[in-house]
Amino acid sequence: MQASCIAPRALPLRPGGQPHLFGASSSGSSRAPLGPPQLQRDSQGRGLAQLVAQAARREQQAGLNRMEAAVPREQRPVNELQQLKDTPLLAWATLDLPQYAQRLLILYGGVFLLLGGPIAAQTFDPLDQPLEFFLSGSTGSLLVVAVAALRIFLGWKYVGDRLLTASLEYEETGWYDGQVFVKPPEVLTRDRLLGTYEVKPVLARLRTTLQGVGVALMATAVTLTVLINSQLDADGAYGRGSARKLAQVTPTGILYSSRVKDMADLAADDEAAELEAAAQGGIPGYCGDRYFKAFAGGERVCEKFEKRR
């Protein structure tokens, strides 16, 4: 039985007679080629195509700039659109939805902590009336968010209208020399593409934001109003004032304690003065008026209450 032999495949020769080894360059260096010749040609072709496309876009943009040269650069809608994207607040609308919602929540929370909450705490005790406190603070905070969203919407709406219109109003050198520029077909086509595919989606998102914030603002305001109206007393007073019951009206003033018959009695009866102070939230109401304070006994009567503040 004869053993079969397979002859090795001959390697291609270089022009000098040396075999060409895969992975060796034609110059004799050890650097390997980038890849198979077909891939190299494809890579070079794609790179060349990108360079040609970029050059064509630059040439096209230069031609469009020449067509609208009469309009100052800062008043051209395409440049105004770029300014929107570079402005911190107005650029929120171009963010991804999670980041956009996060910015609005941060704005709401910051306003609530710095303004809405402290102001609401002056009327509603956060511990005794947590729901009223939250609704009151949220109403003010949502109002600020609504104003910010409206500002963003108006900025994008203005630029969107200038992109989609066929004639463009601009100021040549100042407010007194307004001009009208009729867009050439090429410029109009570019602007309308930008307005349709970049501005309109942003405006749709902002409209949804305004509607959502408006509904939330109305819900908090209505709920807070219902809660306040449900806790009014017969005299129409709410909160601290609703706990006060008018005992009697005297010629010298209004007394809330049934034990006091006259404002002058407060000067001689410390216990009655204490009851009157407790009935009016810690300090008698007459201490804020010099006329009624005089009937109650003068400065001496109110000093002990004012020291407690």
From TrEMBL:
Residue segments, region Disordered: 1-45
Keyword Transmembrane found: yes
Pfam family, one: CGLD27-like
One GO CC term, this protein: plastid
Segments crossing the lipid bilayer: 104-121, 133-154
Residue ranges that the Swiss-Prot or TrEMBL entry lists as coiled coil: none
Keywords: Membrane, Plastid, Transmembrane, Transmembrane helix
Keyword Iron-sulfur listed: no
InterPro entries for the chain: CGLD27-like
Location in or out of the cell: Plastid
Name of the protein: DUF1230 domain-containing protein
Source organism of this protein record: Chlorella variabilis (Green alga)
